[in-house]
Write a structure and sequence with these properties.
429 residues, mainly alpha, Growth Hormone, Chain: A, two-stranded antiparallel ribbon, 16 helices, disordered C terminus
Length: 429
């Protein structure tokens, strides 16, 4: 039976907890492995973080479109469970790569992890409007995003600790990740099945890019298109930020791997809180004020982080940088939740998987570009003997450009299924 008809409270819905735990465990594994590899890729002469980020992002660019089509022609729950099985395989190969201490093999596993996550993404976000009522979507999205960033906190923090404490036996951490992937596969079975949106939807060459139906929808609704572009810019800045924090910690502040990972965790704490606050404040509507507050708050924080050291040393020490990163994350959460809910609610019911797949495609094009941008900027900063944290200024500039063209307006959220239910209620008197 449809959740909208049953009115199951979120906190008592097994599917809600199954989806949250599935996302938490998967994101934890992704971030633990990715952060360990990125820390190993940081060096004062050869900084290969950009390459690692690009390899992780490339499968999303290649597969997000077709993954969106698959999410609409199959049960999204089936896609979620299958992707978790693939995660077990990826984590096992990651343990082998760490056993041989081979950076190229680690990069190859990053690519595989990206492919698994690309397959998972459209089903994960596309199933939310099918499981929950429209007025529950802000809270549901806020909870999923909060669990995502809580997993990032734990994953990136534990990554640095493992590198410092393992004494060359970091493969043990990947073995634990295999167990976590198995647990994640189990909890994914708590998610109930939802109807297949378009069982006869064909897979064509255009499925690997932006499907024709989605292109037509975006042409009819420019606001939807601009929102997708804005999310792409946001995630491009996020990719630059993640590599930039490692640069700030290891190269500029001279911190250990564990202390540097704690800096990454600070922003994740802020994001988690910001997501919950945004979900609570949205009240079933798209509140553009939260989006604007998030954009300008992120810009200010990035400019502060990019401010060069003075004669007496860095403008920000470890403690001050941690505080700024928490505020930066909070502002990112304020931005992310309303945008995510807007895209889910405004996408036609029979195209939600494809629209989310298109969003993932554009987001990961942004992150892929972030890898190239960071690689080029890091080399330039090294050649010019400028502080590594100057890379944050590039992120601030990109957000300024986004603010120049993206001017959303607040509105009530609705979906086609909500309209149908309302019409049926009116017809029944």
């Amino acid at each position: 039976m449809n959740t909208s008809e049953q009115h199951i409270p979120l906190n008592r819905d097994p599917a809600f907890w199954g989806l949250n735990l599935t996302q938490f465990l998967g994101a934890f594994n992704d971030n633990l492995f990715k952060q360990m590899v990125m820390l190993l890729a940081v060096g004062p002469v050869a900084n290969l973080q950009g390459i690692a980020l690009a390899l992780f992002s490339a499968p999303f660019v290649l597969l997000s479109g077709v993954s969106g089509v698959l999410a609409d022609r199959n049960s999204k729950r089936t896609i979620i469970v299958q992707s978790k099985v693939l995660e077990i395989v990826a984590m096992a190969l990651g343990a082998v790569a760490f056993w041989f201490n081979s950076l190229p093999a680690m990069f190859a596993v990053l690519f595989l992890m990206g492919a698994q996550s690309a397959y998972f993404g459209p089903a994960k976000y596309g199933i939310l409007p099918e499981l929950f009522r429209a007025d529950d979507l802000p809270r549901a999205n806020g909870s999923v995003l909060m669990m995502t960033f809580l997993s990032i906190i734990l994953g990136v923090t534990l990554a640095g600790w493992l590198l410092d404490a393992a004494n060359g036996r970091i493969w043990l951490g990947s073995v634990a990740c295999v167990g976590i992937a198995i647990l994640g596969t189990y909890v994914s079975t708590w998610i109930r099945r939802t109807p297949v949106a378009q069982p006869d939807l064909p897979i064509t060459p255009s499925s690997f890019a932006i499907p024709p139906a989605v292109r037509q929808e975006l042409a009819k609704h420019p606001v939807l298109f601009r929102t997708l572009v804005a999310t792409s810019v946001f995630w491009c800045v996020g990719g630059i930020y993640m590599a930039g924090v490692n640069d700030l910690g290891k190269l500029q502040l001279g911190l250990s791997d564990s202390a540097t990972s704690l800096l990454q965790g600070c922003a994740s704490i802020g994001i988690g809180v910001g997501c919950v606050v945004a979900g609570r404040l949205s009240h079933g509507r798209f509140d553009a004020r939260l989006v604007y507050a998030g954009i300008w708050g992120m810009i200010v924080c990035l400019v502060v982080l990019a401010t060069p050291p003075g004669r007496n040393g860095p403008l920000l020490g470890q403690t001050a940088a941690s505080i700024v990163l928490v505020v930066l994350g909070f502002c990112a959460g304020l931005f992310a939740v309303p945008i995510q809910v807007f895209l889910q609610a405004m996408a036609p019911d029979d195209q939600k998987g494809q629209v989310i797949g298109t969003m993932n495609l554009l987001n990961w094009i942004g992150i892929l570009l972030a890898g190239g941008i960071h690689f080029a900027v890091a080399r330039t900063l090294t050649a010019m003997n400028w502080p590594p944290a100057t890379v944050f200024a590039v992120g601030a500039l990109l957000l300024l450009l986004m603010a120049a063209f993206f001017h959303p307006r607040s509105q009530i959220l609705f979906t086609e299924s909500d309209v149908a239910l309302a019409d049926a209620a009116a017809a029944n008197g």
